[in-house]
Write a structure and sequence with these properties.
Rossmann fold; alpha/beta; 203 residues; globular
Length: 203
């Protein structure tokens, strides 16, 4: 289940999803209501939410992410359900995985951070991460490590992996785009994590 970053759409995965499919994974890229368009793909969920006068912020988008994961588990999955997030949705999938054990079997988080607010000094993503038992992969641009290190350290699972590129890298899942210098380093890390944690879970 592929979730995009703020201001974008499922189009973030236009060239990523086919490579994952070639690796043996079924993919569903989801429009959350916090977004617009990218790579020529308009965010339909955000468009409909605006037309209906509904909220289009992160709290509403969190409901979209959780509902999509529950739908995948109940209606689509014939194997493990993996939640893949980018930027703010990376924070959301980590938070949801911690708050709802069993909703996913693995998490891949590209450029997560404490994007979800809360009271001064609060760290809701790190707090939720302390309850994650599923395998987790976290990566980002090289300069963003400080944004997610506390979250990563909070995850108790021994089945967690992190990757930082040798080059500058890029924010979010677009680190995997062909146009991103060093994208193959990211891909190698993703393949290594998936092959290690889900060798028989691919469908």
């Amino acid at each position: 289940m592929l979730f995009h970053q703020a201001g974008w759409s499922r189009g973030e995965y236009r060239e990523i999803a086919p490579r994952l499919v070639a690796m043996g994974f079924n993919c569903l890229a989801v429009d959350q209501r916090s977004g617009d368009a990218v790579n020529g793909v308009v965010n339909q969920t955000a468009r409909r939410a605006r037309e209906a006068g509904l909220g289009i912020g992160m709290p509403e988008a969190a409901r979209d992410v959780e509902a999509a994961l529950r739908y995948a588990r109940a209606r689509l999955a014939r194997g493990p359900v993996l939640a893949w997030g980018s930027s703010y949705s990376a924070a959301l999938v980590l938070t949801i995985a911690g708050r709802h054990p069993g909703i996913v079997d693995g998490v891949l988080a590209f450029s997560p951070g404490e994007y979800l607010g809360g009271s001064a000094g609060a760290s809701p993503v790190a707090a939720a991460a302390r309850r994650i038992t599923a395998p987790v992969f976290i990566t980002s641009a090289r300069s963003e490590r400080k944004d997610w290190r506390a979250i990563y350290d909070a995850i108790p699972s021994s089945r967690k992996r992190a990757y930082l590129p040798e080059s500058e890298g890029r924010h979010g899942s677009s680190a995997l785009w062909r146009s991103t210098p060093g994208n193959e380093g990211y891909w190698q890390a993703v393949r290594g994590f998936l092959n290690l944690q889900f060798p028989r879970g691919r469908r």
